[in-house]
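Hi R.,

Here's the chain you asked about this morning:
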Amino acid sequence: MKLRGDLQLRKLGDDHILIYPGQDQLDMSKVYTFNETAVQIWLELQGKEFNVESVTAVLLDNYEVEESEAERDAEKLVKQFENQGFLI
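And the predicted structure, written out as tokens:
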């Protein structure tokens, strides 16, 4: 799987938001706020093929977390990306 390349990650104040293309005027129903971890993963995965294992590896490389917790979080995040239509 791969992240959609047409979505835009922007910093708005202290927040990072993901918006759909063509939103000249921000439609808040199609804006998603990311925490710092999700931003880090989004940036690491941009333009690359990935799976739950590679997301787990990003978490393990960047955060002090147990492997089982990283795997659970990776599965959850990938599922959220899938449910929101962020994947191709």
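The chain has a mean pLDDT of 90.

Let me know if you need anything else.
M.
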